[in-house]
Amino acid sequence: MEEIKLIVDGKRLDGRGFEELRPIKIEAGVLNRADGSCYLEMGGNKVVAAVYGPREVHPKHLEDPSKAIIRYRYSMAPFSVEERKRPGPDRRSIEISKVSREALEPVIMKALFPRSAIDIFVEVLQADAGSRTACLNAASVALIDAGIPMKGMVTSVAIAKVDGVLVLDPMKEEDNYGEADIPFAFLIRNGKIESITLLQMDGRVTAEELKKALEMAKKGAMQIYQLQREAILKKYVREEVME
Ligand code: ADP
Asked: What is the pTM assigned to this prediction?
């Protein structure tokens, strides 16, 4: 395979520095039929999240008398990637749905809603690496928009190792040809990172690199967190003006 250089003259292929995020755009409350929703762009990713609930559980046998059940469905539109993606669930989307649900579950105050369901749907309209992180960021805003009581915000970003260096928020080429891809998600409470709720790794890094990756991801996540907050605040200001 021909070697592809991902770092040229100390810069990444899209001109970013190693610790620079892609441009991010977040809008809360974009869908009328959902209880909460969010549209989010993170570089070339375009995703939308819709939250329904707390609502009755169907099928009934899944209900839990002590708390709400959380369901998360990640799905990619057929036109979201270069070659048409076959619609419907596949191994990858089932895995992403599972780890993303687990990343959100500890943050949602489930015990307040026994025998109910909170359903989170995320749709990838355009993918450009890190779509699971973009979807988690959107889902978190949509949950807050739905008024679901949360212990904090979930914020997600990936780190990649490319040409021997760690970079924040990898785009497609860095994800495809890099040596490692490490998505993180954090619970951020009162402006502070409290815990890691998702950590995956594809490829290899040293223990030292993993520590550095964590520090870089935390810094990136704090920037994304500010934008998530702003999107929520903006929605509420908009509602007040309309009243
Ligand atoms: P993530 O999007 O969270 O980084 P992956 O690492 O599995 O998840 O995928 C990286 C990127 O590869 C995706 O964002 C997307 O651009 C591309 N990709 C994923 N699945 C497909 C597919 N079925 N066909 C074409 N491209 C895909």
From this structure: 0.97
